[in-house]
Amino acid sequence: MGWKVQVVDGGLPDMYNNSVSLDDQQVMLFWTLSENSISIAARGEKKSGYLAIGFGRGMANSYAYVGWVDDSGQGRVNTYWIDGRDASNVHPTKENLTYVRCKSENGIITLEFTDR
Which residues form a coiled coil (predicted)? Predict the structure, then answer.
């Protein structure tokens, strides 16, 4: 007699310790802190081709994480430093992201990553 294993996917709320609703409940942000890293997920309605979250007091002088699914179907998450309010002030960074995932299904885009 063997074991019967059933995987129950409770979704992002079960995978992260903390969450907050943003942008009039259009975006959910989830996160878990550990000693050396933070794991983050964001989920929102796909109004354009990407989902972006930023950390800072305003648009200027903040870090942004941008997730999208490219033309080949590959999920991407890139990081940026923003030091102003126009496109010339958006600078790619080299964050050490791991466990990077981004997917788009049924009009919802979800990004996940761990930053050390």
Answer: none
Write the DSSP assignment of 27-89 as a string of letters.
Answer: EEEEEEE-SS-EEEEEEEE-SSSEEEEEESSSSSSEEEEEEEE-TTS-EEEEEEEE-SSSGGG
Give me the number of domains the chain comprises. 1
CATH number at residue 107: 2.60.40.1210
- pLDDT-derived band of residue 10, with 50, 70 and 90 as boundaries? low
Examine residue 71 and state whether it is found in any structural domain, yes or no. Answer: yes
Global pTM? 0.83
- What is the rounded distance in angstroms from the CA atom of residue 103 to the CA atom of residue 65? 15
What is the reported pLDDT for 7?
A: 45
38 within some domain: yes
